[in-house]
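Here is an idea for our session: we take a single protein and study its fold together. Which protein we use is up to you, so please pick one and set it down. Once you have written the record down, we can walk along the chain together:
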Amino acid sequence: MPSSFAARTRGLVRDEALERAAELLVAGGWRGLRLQDVADGIGVSRQTLYNEFASKQGLAAALVLRRTEEFLGELEAALDGEDDLYRAWSSAVRTTLDTTARDPLLRVLLTGQGAEELLPLLTSEAEPLVAAARDRAADFLARRRPGLDAATATAAAEIAARLTISHIVLPLHPPDVVADQIATTVVRYLAAPT
């Protein structure tokens, strides 16, 4: 059933608001992002944005989830591109780190660089991000190892997601080392007796 005109319009406003917010966030950081500027940039009232996102933090959370979904598609392709489980996880972690390094929006969103107020989205309020990454990776494991217990697959995927996000926020080692460490951790976790 086709969606209503109002729903399509709301979706368009939401998409345009997120695009404009991303531009402003990359250009001016968190402090340079104002709902009024986003509203002016797309030709709607500030109240319209408050109705859609509730706050500047709500807009940021929607932006994080949207960009995360796009980037999780890349992650899934990296996982599916390898037959060996270790190489699949290593490739997925490396893809994540490389994408974050070259994408200015992801760098701001995931590191808080110039936007320290966004760090809660990766720490105390990171559940939607971790859950999205965990669920995609757990689906990969379910496809790759059909006999694997769902709880074990979910736990391994969550461990990998949390470790990768931790490295993005506070990198201590080169990406190849981190990819190896996380892939090794996941493979060993899956091989351990339950």
Q: What stands out?
A: The chain has a mean pLDDT of 84. The chain has one domain: 5-191. The longest helix spans residues 56-80.
